[in-house]
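> agent: user asked for a holo structure of the chain below bound to zinc ion. Plan: (1) validate sequence alphabet, (2) canonicalize SMILES, (3) run complex prediction with ligand conditioning, (4) return tokens. Step 1... ok. Step 2... ok. Step 3 dispatched.
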Amino acid sequence: MKLLIKNGRVIDPSSGLDETLDVLVVDGKIVSVAARIEAPDAPVIDASRLVVAPGFIDMHAHVREPGQEKKEDILSASRAAAKGGFTTICAMPNTNPVNDSRRITEYIIAESRRRAVISILPIAAITKGLAGEELTDMAGLAASGAVAFSDDGRGVQNSRVMKEALERAKKLDALIIDHCEDSNLSRGGMMNEGPASALLGFPGIPAAAEDVMVSRDVILAGAAGTRIHIAHLSTRGAVDLVRQAKKRDIQVTAEVTPHHVVLSDTALQRPDPNLKVNPPLRGAEDVKALHEAIQEGVVDAFATDHAPHSPDQKEVGFAQAPFGIDGLETAVSLLLDRLVSRQVISLRRLVDMFSTRPAQILGLHGKGRISPGADADLTILNLHQEVTVDVRNLVSKSRNNPFDGWRLKGAPQMTIRGGRVVYPFDRSAPT
Ligand SMILES: [Zn+2]
């Protein structure tokens, strides 16, 4: 099976490539990247005026299967991802049952191979039942295909347990993805603690709840000599901690979500339950710090924290609604518009943070690059296309996205996974 993508602006941050070139794909792999490739028997995709990037990877998504298929399932999440420009997503373990066993890890891998239109890689729990007490069988879970470990949604409160998890991760060369939240400080909170929460009267989640745990875990990772990846960085203080840790050669990486980059807590003057996220939307100074961190390289990756919730759960009002944004389908357009069009960062940096760096952090050697031998996972972007977000058109099963009605410049136009066109959906895959 062949595919020839012609005349696209090929951007490969791993090699620094940014040129108008052709890309030839054979049997799911990239075989050639050059000017004017001839392949008479290959179906052709004309990528003139389009950007050809290595397939985007979302390190942080809640797929909800098994257990909460009303909100999302493997097929619907994979279609939302494909539409959003992602060829790989990582599934967080807070499913029901929790992914703390080889059985669930293997179920997600097998069902994703069978039903998903893109790659779904399971992240297993650090502790059994996400209870924060007893470590899972990390060696067995890694052998079954868990790509990383996380107690996302809670954070590991017990420092000793986290220390042991990091030491075990070091032995396995495994990655811990760290949800940093001191629950004694955050308990009961609904939004960022600050002038906006005082004005609106909702209980606050202080920045310190995040900063304290980032600080602790950077220290523990440094002592263990192991890697740690900070999930959804949201505060100025946490940015400073990651910056300092990197200067001291601690092996820390970090991700930031689109919603923390484009929104601050002042958006909550309209207390839309779809703006209720954890960590919460922070203050303007925090957002500014995140922009600087992205520019400097203190933050490594974008990740959606896609967290679908059914309408009946979000329509109960701000105080009662669960945390989360249904973000896979709007992430790329949001950041193309707010960061690239407005010249906060270059397009190459955006591609780096959506693809090359996540592939490196996760150790996915065939991904995150456009070069011979790499997987034929490609995200084709149209920088000129203007889109208006309409939540009724989301292919996710849920609708909890606060960007309804936003006009954005730039969008994913085609998603190719393993040499097959998986988005647009109506385009039959070449044979
Ligand atoms: Zn989290």
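> agent: step 4 complete. Summary for user: The pocket of zinc ion is lined by residues 152-153, 179, 231-232 (CB under 6 Å). The first strand starts at residue 2 and ends at 12.
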